[in-house]
Design goal:
Layout lengths: L1 E2 L10 E2 L1 H15 L3 H7 L11 E2 H7 L4 E3 L2 H10 L14 E3 L6 H4 L2 H11 L2 H4 L4 H4 L7 H9 L5 H7 L6 H19 L4 H8 L27 E4 L7 H14 L8 E4 L4 H10 L19
Parallel strand pairs: 1-4, 4-5, 6-7
Antiparallel strand pairs: 2-3
Helix pairs in contact: 10-11
C-alpha cells in the first residue's frame, strides 16, 4: 500500500539511470529484474529512455493500493498521476482519499488532559469527534482553565532537551534563545527593558493583514505576542529555505529578541511541546500545493 503526499515536483525524488544502476542493483537482482525493466517501472512514460527514475512512480507500480491524505488531495493526485493508468479517465484513477487522522492524546498536554478527564469524562479520548461532549468545555471555570494552561508554558527546559546538541551553529544558539523566550513567557508581559525597542519596530515579519491590524502586535504593552516558528524545507525547495533564512535573521534583531524564535530540527517531540504551549494554532495550507492542512 502506498500513500502519496506533497503534490509538488520538488517532493518527488528522481534519479538518473547511472545512479539507479549503482544504488539499486542489489534490490533489482533480488526481485529478478533487469536494469531496463526497473527503469521502465519507475518512469512516468516507460517508453522515454531519457527520463529519470521516479521513486513515486516506482512505488505506485510496485503497490496494490494507493491513497492520498484528504479529499482535495485525492483529486489533485489523480490528476498528477493519471498517466500511470493511460486507459482510465481521471476520475477513475484508483487513488483513494483517506483523510489524515489525529491521535488526540498525543497532541494534548498532560495538564489539559487531566482537566478534560475531570470535566468531559473519558469520551474525549475515545470519541474525539463528538461535538456534544466538547460543548461541555464551557463548563470548565475560566480561572481553572487558564491556570492549567499556564503550567506548561515555560517549556524551555523540555525544548532544550528536544533540540539535539551539535547539529550546527543554530543548535548551539538554541539554549540562549530559549532562555530569552522562557523569561518572556514566564512574565506573560513584556519586560520594561523590552518595551522601548519593541515600540520602535518598523518591519514586523510576519504581520497580520488588515488596516492597522499589525500595529503594536509584538510590542503591545499589555498583551505582547510571541511568534515561534518551526519546520523544515525540502532540500530542493529554495523558496522554503529562503523563508526560513528570513525568519532566522529576524530572530537575531535586537528589537525582536524574545518575541520571534525559530526552532530547528523539527519533529514530533518539538511539535508536541509547541501544540501544548501555544494560545493560537493556525492551519495554513496553500491549495493545491499541500496534501492536507499543516499546522504552522
Amino acid at each position: 500500500m502506498f500513500t502519496t503526499h506533497t503534490p509538488v515536483a520538488a517532493a518527488t525524488t528522481c534519479s538518473p539511470p547511472n545512479l539507479v544502476q549503482k544504488v539499486m542493483t542489489p534490490f533489482r537482482d533480488k526481485i529478478g529484474l533487469t536494469h531496463a525493466e526497473l527503469l521502465e517501472l519507475g518512469r512516468l512514460h516507460p517508453e522515454d529512455a531519457t527520463s529519470p527514475l521516479s521513486m513515486t512512480v516506482l512505488a505506485i507500480r510496485l503497490s496494490d493500493r494507493y491513497n492520498a491524505v484528504s479529499a482535495l488531495h485525492g483529486r489533485v493526485a489523480r490528476g498528477m498521476w493519471r498517466n500511470i493508468w493511460p486507459e482510465a479517465h481521471e476520475e477513475d484513477v484508483p487513488i483513494r482519499a483517506i483523510t489524515n487522522g489525529v491521535h488526540t492524546p498525543t497532541w494534548v498536554s498532560r495538564e489539559i488532559a487531566g482537566l478534560f478527564d475531570r470535566y468531559l469524562g473519558p469520551r474525549w479520548r475515545e470519541e474525539p469527534p463528538t461535538s456534544e461532549m466538547w460543548n461541555r468545555v464551557d463548563d470548565i471555570p475560566d480561572a481553572e482553565l487558564w491556570r492549567v494552561h499556564e503550567r506548561p508554558a515555560p517549556a524551555a527546559g523540555r525544548l532544550r532537551a528536544a533540540s539535539p546538541a551539535g547539529a550546527g551553529r543554530a543548535s548551539r544558539r538554541t539554549p540562549r534563545l530559549l532562555t530569552e523566550m522562557d523569561e518572556a513567557l514566564r512574565s506573560r508581559r513584556a519586560h520594561d527593558r523590552l518595551r522601548a525597542p519593541l515600540r520602535r519596530v518598523q518591519a514586523r515579519p510576519p504581520r497580520a493583514r488588515g488596516r492597522g491590524a499589525h500595529r503594536h502586535v509584538l510590542a503591545n504593552r499589555d498583551r505582547p505576542v510571541q511568534i515561534i516558528f518551526s519546520g523544515k524545507a525540502h532540500p530542493r525547495d529554495e523558496a522554503g529555505k529562503a523563508i526560513i533564512r528570513q525568519i532566522v535573521q529576524a530572530t537575531r534583531r535586537l528589537e525582536l529578541r524574545g518575541r520571534v524564535a525559530f526552532l530547528e530540527d523539527y519533529g514530533m517531540g518539538i511539535a508536541r511541546l509547541l501544540v501544548g504551549g501555544v494560545d493560537v494554532w493556525l492551519n495554513n495550507p496553500r491549495r493545491p500545493l499541500e496534501a492536507s492542512a499543516r499546522a504552522a
